[in-house]
Design goal:
Radius of gyration: 35 Å
Active site: 900 (proton donor)
Number of strands: 22
Helix content: 55-70%
Catalytic activity: D-sedoheptulose 7-phosphate + D-glyceraldehyde 3-phosphate = aldehydo-D-ribose 5-phosphate + D-xylulose 5-phosphate
TPR repeats: 108-141
Strand order of the largest sheet: 12-11-13-14-16-15
Strand content: 5-15%
Largest sheet: 6 strands, parallel
Bound molecules: thiamine diphosphate
Structural class: alpha/beta
Biased composition (Polar residues): 26-36
Organism: Effrenium voratum
Length: 1182
């Protein structure tokens, strides 16, 4: 069986298992689907037919039976029952395959049919697979010019086009057209179909003139062959009419009314003809006829012929109701259009009916925050208002004001190529908002004053008893929110420092998320599949501490043991920001419930992307169809600061690209930062930026609206292939009588008086640190009911998993426990001695790949330098969304793009979710990712930062690419281990040392080849595990010690030979990791660097700063003082003093007790500025 077929069948089986359809008998019952309002009279007949065919399918399928099942699929498809259609088409395909073989014509027909139903369902990847499969098989069997092959080619092109692979699609359409033209002639019906497809493609891809020409040719051809009463001719009429309408629009823009009218007439004539022919020949329910009616109605409306438009829309609605059902989106959209015409005609009652029906239907289908819903609801509001029912109109207006800012309709709608949605700028939104407010009728304002507020739920779903009884719940919600707000005020006041404003503003947001949405068990906060909550604006830490306390989250030790105590007790909150408190100024990971350390703005959101990737990766690698162990969502709360930091943009761009639909950022849009109003520093439209990144952007206009917030979170949960940004408009220090909306409330205690006044406004007792039991109970219960239950279910699943999949279960357990798989290093092999050697980036690459084989959760990538840094895992797939067709979510090679900063943060996110991440770039660009490297060290997560091109040895690229200060600068980060191995075997030992470490490391590698040392002659590379070791020595106590790392070790050994030849008792020390060396017992340190020997020279193609402690005052460093220069690597190294002579001279100086003075080094730095190439060893002071 071909691989595509195997893969494909697996997908079908998986889908069927997911849908609970294990075999033909378990297809969804037709009676059930018949109950669907979308199905009408045909259901009984269909039911009977399907049942019969399924019976035959099981026993003795004939081509006829299978074809009929295929036809049933097509019928279901047409009536909008896509899910059933897919199942039937799958059935037909599998049945044919089994009965007649993979390449049989019936099987291939069934496969194409399946492609079509997938396509209709919007599953373009699946459709593409089917069409490609059918094309390949037909191509091989029937040849490239066979009509069936070309039909498949055409289908494939259309699927590719839907996947956004336009160039490929265009090529295939063209090929298909040419082949048909050559083999069948230009007037053959198939050739005309191809030409029609090509024209459609050209029209949607910006070549309207060519498209028009082709469409017209096709229409002429079809009229000739088929006459007027044929579906294809009518389709052509529709297409030509659409082009004419495009032209009319163009003329309107160019202010050419005469031509505009001419084009409109042309379109009208064509559409009338299409409607008449369609109605007579295809029937009034046929989609082609309905499309013509809809277009004609739109045209009438545009031309102000409202009566005609009304008539046509009514016909179209009737047809759509009959053909697709009342609840089909096309029907509802058409009803909405009819509403528009009725309203323009002054038939407001009828218009209101239309809008009401359309609104309810569309909201049910798309949710109340979808742009289409919002515009329909707004139309409804207008008619209600006009009818004087302002009380009903008001909530709809407000809903539009609050949630409808980001998308709008451009131009007119319909199939005239102008239905593209586009995004309005924020400034526009503000204006729109103001206009709408001004536009509220006096009735509505009056109703608002009366506060007789209906909710939007009342209008959509009707007043419900259930919701009325929620009044009590709402009161309790308010209590929890007030409690969180008051705790923040009290703690900041008591500490006399901290940030009260944002916790006060964001309390309802965090509460609705935690209480109603987050899958999080307060009893077991380290449960692996919990949803992650990242407080990216770390300064608002009191919000997190409040949540942890009031939700009653339990403490977990660093070893993962539950202590039974509270994670954050009231006493801890009382000692907020005090030395040793569990509630430090900014949240620090390691304290229970803190998912990551935050404070540097932007890091939290960027790291959350890594967490979301981890969730996808875990799901893809461990989940089984019946045991979906992983799939947690990641929520990050961000402030204006986070959104302004560049790293959030990098990370968001990647998240959008990766289609991480499990990621939700919530932006506290309070327009306040430390200096004052955000408008002083930023004017771009952030929300629109996110839309451009490919995010789903929602807005909640009031941070206190718990219901709207909850709906927004649920809307995030429904999103299929985009991350979600929820913009929440808020007021810093909400409720504080003098401090609300003031930047002073950002980071200053409010003052006792203000705190008391604010509590009064909250209706909260003026008592410090008050947490009533009722409040805890209400919050905790909601979390336990959802998160607690899910966690328990998860643990059962895990237990079953371990039994059913013992091997994967054991690996998973090791990962969860922070252990390594057994014999993880079994693929690592030593390198033979070799004078020519390998660049350490090459030997490291080999080691990385060996390690990856034994450590399945090692995952990483590069900031577009994988081919230079050599960090690709060669046998592994790419981590990309399946829709991209380039990879999948189980892949282990990440493509970070040129986003070093985000790469570092994302790596940390992966590490926080127990994966082992690596990421690579050139050493000089480590500066671009210093913040996350520092964060990794601070959080003690084992991210592996791989840096190649480690010195002036880079050569020709010049000083911009030659790191000089980076080694020392990285070494100055506490807790970071910087490795710079000297050859292939040190590389190997380095990876063996690095993998078991729990701390972050920087791995620094050469671009140029370095000899692989003969370890018979020199000490074993296993000395690396002590950070530094004696590589070459002389008899007895040395009177000179040389030390070096990486490429300079080889220079050191050459100098060693010269010096030893002169009778000097010299010792050469390889120092691949200074930090590790410094943690060795003092005895060992003294044995490598005896105190008695103070004549020491260190060699490293970098600044001297980190060597001071090792060489002491009497030693000297042969290294870089200035930046490097462009030129061949060897030449540059010589020019900058990396020669045996220079080392020998330095040795002579330190042995004389006269190391080079500091002032002479400074001289050379100044001279660099004047003469870029003045070499270190030729300076006069030497
Ligand atoms: C990278 C970084 N730069 C600067 C700061 C200092 N800082 C802390 S909060 C803040 C203002 C943040 O404003 P916003 O995110 O709107 O928070 P809000 O004022 O709403 O609390 C700044 C500049 C920081 N923590 N991190």
């Amino acid at each position: 069986m071909g691989t595509w077929t195997a893969h494909f069948i697996q997908r079908i089986l998986d889908a069927r298992r997911r849908n609970g359809a294990g075999n033909a008998k378990t297809l969804p019952s037709v009676t059930q689907t018949g109950a669907n309002p979308g199905t009408r009279g045909e259901s009984k007949e269909t039911e009977h037919g399907e049942a019969m065919h399924r019976r035959e399918l099981g026993t003795n399928p004939t081509p006829k039976t299978l074809q009929s099942v295929g036809r049933m699929a097509a019928m279901r498809n047409q009536s909008g029952q896509h899910y059933e259609a897919v199942l039937l088409a799958q059935e037909a395909f599998l049945g044919s395959r089994k009965a007649f073989g993979e390449q049989a014509p019936h099987t291939l027909d069934a496969l194409s049919n399946l492609g079509s139903v997938w396509k209709a369902q919007g599953e373009h990847e699946e459709a593409e697979k089917c069409f490609r499969g059918a094309f390949k098989l037909r191509h091989d069997k029937l040849g490239p010019n066979h009509p069936d092959t070309l039909t498949s080619l055409n289908n494939l092109a259309s699927a590719l086009d839907s996947l956004g692979r336009a160039a490929e699609a265009g090529r295939l359409y063209q090929e298909c057209l040419e082949r048909r033209c050559n083999t069948l002639g230009s007037s053959h019906p198939d050739t005309l179909t191809s030409a029609g497809n090509m024209a459609l493609y050209l029209r949607t891809h910006g070549q309207p003139a060519k498209a028009r020409e082709l469409f017209e040719q096709v229409l002429v051809g079809r009229r000739k062959i088929f006459g007027v009463r044929h579906m294809d001719t009518i389709i052509s009429m529709n297409n030509c009419a659409s082009v004419a309408m495009d032209n009319a629009e163009e003329c309107r823009r160019k202010c050419d009314p005469r031509e505009e009218t001419r084009q409109q007439h042309k379109a009208e004539a064509l559409l009338k003809e299409a409607v008449v022919a369609g109605s007579n020949y295809l029937g009034t329910r046929h989609p082609v006829t309905l499309r013509a009616m809809n277009n004609l109605a739109g045209l009438h409306k545009d031309r102000g012929q409202l009566d005609k438009a009304k008539l046509m829309y009514e016909k179209a609605v009737a047809g759509l109701r009959a053909a697709q059902g009342d609840k089909h989106l096309d029907t509802l959209t058409c009803i909405n259009n009819l509403g528009g015409v009725l309203r323009s005609l002054g038939e407001v009652d009828d218009a209101e009916e239309c809008y009401k029906e359309a609104s309810i239907g569309i909201v049910e289908k798309l949710g109340d925050l979808h742009p289409t819903s919002l515009s329909t609801l707004y139309n409804w509001a207008l008619t209600l208002d006009e009818l004087g029912d302002s009380a009903s109109a008001l909530p709809l207006y407000l809903h539009e004001l609050d949630h409808g800012p980001f998308t709008g309709e451009c131009g007119s709608k319909g199939s005239r190529g102008r239905s593209k949605r586009f995004v309005f700028g924020f400034r526009f939104i503000q204006t729109k908002k103001a206009n709408h407010r001004a536009g509220l009728s006096s009735h509505a304002t009056h109703a608002m004053a009366e506060a007789k507020m209906l909710t939007i739920e009342d209008l959509i779903f009707g007043p419900s008893k259930e919701r009325k009884s929620e009044e009590k719940t709402r009161k309790r919600d308010e209590l929890v929110i007030s409690c969180l707000r008051s705790l923040a005020m009290d703690a900041v006041q008591q500490a006399n420092s901290g940030h009260p404003g944002t916790p006060m503003a964001m309390a309802p947001v965090a509460y609705s998320l935690w209480a109603r949405v987050l899958n999080y068990d307060p009893e077991c906060p380290h449960w692996m599949n919990r949803d992650r909550f990242v407080l990216s604006m770390g300064h608002a830490s009191m919000l997190l501490y409040g949540l942890l306390h009031v939700a009653g989250v339990k403490e977990v030790t660093q070893d993962g043991l539950l202590t039974g105590k509270m994670a954050v007790a009231l006493e801890d909150i009382k000692s907020f920001r005090q030395f040793g408190s569990k509630c430090p100024g900014h949240p620090e990971v390691g304290e229970t419930g803190v998912e990551m350390t935050t404070g540097p703005l932007g890091q939290g959101v960027a790291t959350s992307v890594g967490m979301a990737i981890a969730s996808k990766w875990l799901a893809s690698n461990f989940n089984k169809p019946d045991l979906p162990l992983f799939g947690f969502d990641v929520f990050a709360l961000a402030g204006d600061g986070c959104m302004q930091e560049g790293v959030s943009g990098e990370a968001a761009s990647l998240a959008g690209h990766l289609k991480l639909n499990n990621l939700c950022w919530i932006w506290d849009n309070n327009q306040i930062t430390i200096e004052g109003n955000t408008a002083w520093a930023i004017s771009e439209d952030i929300a629109t930026r996110f839309v451009a990144y490919g995010w789903n952007v929602l807005r909640v206009g009031d941070a206190n609206d718990v219901e709207a917030l909850t709906r927004a979170f649920l809307s995030f949960r429904r999103e299929q292939d985009r991350p979600t940004l929820i913009v929440v408009d808020s007021h810093i220090a909400w409720g504080a009588p003098t401090m609300q909306d003031s930047f002073h409330a950002h980071g200053t205690p409010l003052g006792e008086k203000e705190v008391a006044a604010t509590k009064h406004i909250y209706n909260w007792p003026d008592e410090k640190f008050l947490v009533p039991e009722e409040v805890v109970g209400h919050f905790r219960q909601q979390m336990l009911e959802r998160g607690g239950a899910k966690r328990q279910h998860w643990e059962q699943m895990l237990a079953t998993y371990r039994v059913q999949y013992p091997q994967e279960g054991a690996l998973l357990q090791a990962m969860l426990d922070g252990q390594l798989p057994q014999d993880w290093d079994r693929f690592c092999q030593a390198f033979p001695a070799d004078a020519k050697g390998l660049a350490t980036r090459q030997s490291s690459s080999a080691c990385l790949n060996s390690v990856a084989k034994g450590l399945p959760w090692l995952i990483g990538g590069s900031a577009d330098l994988a081919s230079s840094c050599l960090t690709t895992l060669t046998k592994e797939a790419d981590f990309l969304p399946p829709a991209s067709r380039w990879g999948h979510f189980g892949g282990r090679n990440l493509h970070f793009g040129i986003r070093e900063h985000a790469m570092g943060s994302i790596m940390n996110g992966l590490a926080l979710c127990k994966l082992r991440p690596f990421g690579s770039t050139f050493l000089v660009f480590s500066d671009y990712m210093r913040p996350p490297i520092r964060m990794a060290a601070l959080m003690e997560v084992p991210s592996v930062f791989v840096f190649t091109h480690d010195s002036i040895g880079v050569g020709e690229d010049g000083p911009t690419h030659q790191p000089v200060e980076q080694l020392c600068s990285l070494r100055s980060i506490p807790g970071l281990f910087v490795f710079r191995p000297c050859d292939a075997n040190e590389c190997l030992e380095m990876w063996k040392a690095v993998v078991p470490m729990k701390d972050p490391v920087a791995v620094v590698l050469s671009r140029q080849a370095l000899p692989t040392l003969d370890r018979e002659k020199f000490a074993s590379a296993s000395g690396l595990h002590r950070g530094g070791y004696v590589l070459a020595d002389s008899e007895g106590m040395p009177n000179l010690i040389l030390m070096a790392t990486g490429s300079e070790v080889h220079l050191m050994l050459q100098a060693h030979e010269v010096l030893a030849g002169r009778g000097i008792k010299v010792r050469s020390v390889s120092m691949p990791c200074m930090e590790l060396f410094k943690t060795q017992p003092q005895d060992y340190i003294d044995s490598v660097l005896p105190r008695a020997c103070r004549a020491r020279v260190s060699l490293e193609a970098g600044r001297s700063d980190s060597w001071g402690a090792l060489i002491g005052l009497d030693g000297e460093h042969v290294g870089m003082i200035s930046f490097g220069a462009s030129g061949p690597g060897k030449r540059v190294q010589e020019e900058y003093g990396f020669t045996v002579d220079a080392v020998v001279m330095a040795a002579a100086r330190v042995m004389r007790g006269t190391p080079q003075e500091m002032s002479s080094r400074a001289q050379s730095l100044l001279s660099w500025k004047k003469r870029r190439l003045s070499s270190y060893h030729r300076l006069p002071s030497l």
